[in-house]
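Exercise: predict the structure of this protein bound to guanosine-5'-monophosphate.
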Amino acid sequence: MDACIFCKIASGGAKATIVHESPDFLAFEDIHPQAPVHTLLVPREHLPTLNDLRPEHAPLLGRMVLAARDIARSRGIAERGYRLLANCNADGGQAVFHLHFHLLGGRPLGAKLCS
Ligand code: 5GP
Ligand code: ZN
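Solution:
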């Protein structure tokens, strides 16, 4: 996907502050951080949304969640807490159509939207 900014970052064709690299995903700092820690976890495969996931992606997703946990620990926010989320399509507020998880923390994140 030549036009996709996250594909460009994953291939080294666009700059980002990369904090983790694995064969099938990477993590880099959000360009407009919403919290002191705001890291994006992104599969190297161009999957537009959560809706495009297939069963074979389950191990990848597990590794991404564990990496998010490890980044939270290394950034010192694990004990106070953090949020890991993915927005999907219009109602979910998705702006970049290459699947990604946001790791947010380092300040109280406010009201829960899911309860
Ligand atoms: P979404 O709303 O799709 O869940 O979130 C997209 C996120 O990607 C936003 O938080 C936005 O700041 C971030 N973002 C958009 N373009 C770039 C970019 O070129 N580089 C980085 N590092 N983050 C980006
Ligand atoms: Zn992409």
